[in-house]
Amino acid sequence: RSTDEKEQEANYFAACLLMPSDDVHRFIDLEIQNFQECGLSAMDIARIMSEFNVSFDMALNRLESLGVINTDQKMRLDNIKTLIMLSIIIIIMQFQKKHWSVCSLIISLS
Fold this sequence. Notes:
The protein is about 85% helix and about 0% strand. By secondary structure, it is mostly helical. It is globular and about 55 Å long. It starts with a helix and ends with a helix. The mean pLDDT is about 85.
């Protein structure tokens, strides 16, 4: 077997161990409102991440493998994750720029 096959098997084992099918379905049934009508949001994925202590990507992969979401939904949620990450990076950069300006002013006044 190739290393890729072994890695895929290991990832699948980890996903099954960390996110058992029954537990995932129970969590969605009990904790995710309007799932049948609206599907999952990025906030729902964040709640799943927290509940099962997994990454966003692992949650998406496991939900797809369980048939909870399809490939299009997975791509949409992954794109939202990317937009959120980019927004966070921009906010951090703006904060650092402003913070640096304030620090420079304080240093120059002292």
